[in-house]
Amino acid sequence: QVQLVESGGGLVQVGGSLRLSCAASESISSINTMGWYRQAPGKQRELVARTSTITYTVYADSVKGRFTISRDIAENTVYLQMNSLKPEDTAVYYCSAQKSGRNYWGQGTQVTVSS
To answer: Within a 13 Å sphere around the CA of 105, how many CA atoms are in the beta-carbon half?
Structure first.
């Protein structure tokens, strides 16, 4: 079972930056796909970005050019660098992992962008 722990959320002003971290309990080189999702109040959870061991990366249109997902295999950590933040980026951000046909989720970290 893969355990995921997110960190790095917080309160930031419009135009600011944050970097989210997701630490996995095992080597991420053995995990097929890792990604970030977010859920705003009253809305469904949505994909932000994901990356696979085959090195393809997918971003939501709303974050393209502003957010970057990356892996640090040595640290078993996936990052989400978020720049030029907007109020509509406010949400709880969840790390996800897909391995052997199962999905795993972290507990989430709150990101609030104030205008």
So the answer is: 11
- The DSSP output letter for 4 is E
CB 107 within 8 A of CB 5: yes
| pLDDT per residue as tens, the chain (115 positions) | 899 999 999 999 999 999 999 999 999 988 989 999 999 999 999 999 999 876 689 999 999 999 999 999 999 999 999 999 999 999 999 999 999 899 999 999 999 999 9
H or E element, residue 82: strand 77-82
CA dist 103 and 81 (Å) reads: 23
**Dihedral sign (CA 71, 51, 6, 13):** positive
In one-letter notation, the amino acid at residue 24 is A
